[in-house]
Amino acid sequence: MKYEVIIKPRAEKELLDLNQKDYERVRLKIGELAGNPRPFGVKQLKTRENYRIRVGNYRVIYNVGDKQKIVEILDVLRRNERTYQGL
């Protein structure tokens, strides 16, 4: 069963700030989460019950609502030493 993907406004803004090539790659990966919200390579964050997938130099932070069949995209961040601070 497919999940509904919801992109929070903050994540949408972060997506729009990407260059065209990175934007397309990240959007494709986000779209794939509808069919499989926990794909190979997904990591569950230790600090909260969120997940992250890697798309090149970017990380997509999201959570999954299995009962509601929802994937909620919280952040799209460029990987650096502060990526996971505050999550």
What does this protein look like?
With 87 residues, this protein is of the alpha+beta class. A hairpin with a 4-residue loop joins strand 4 and strand 5.
Which sequence of SSEs, written as H and E, runs from N to C? Answer: EHHEEEE
- What oligomeric arrangement do these chains adopt? single chain
> Which residues form runs of ≥5 with pLDDT under 50?
none
Largest sheet: 5 strands, mixed
Overall radius of gyration: 12 Å
Tally of strands: 5
Percent helix: 10-25%
Coarse morphology: globular
| Distance N to C terminus | 29 Å
Strand order within the widest beta sheet: 1-5-4-3-2
Number of helices: 2
Strand content: 25-35%
Summed over residues and divided by their number, the pLDDT gives a mean of: 88
Q: Determine the structural class based on helices, strands and strand pairing.
A: alpha+beta
Notable features of this structure?
alpha+beta; 87 residues; 32% strand; five-stranded mixed β-sheet; single chain
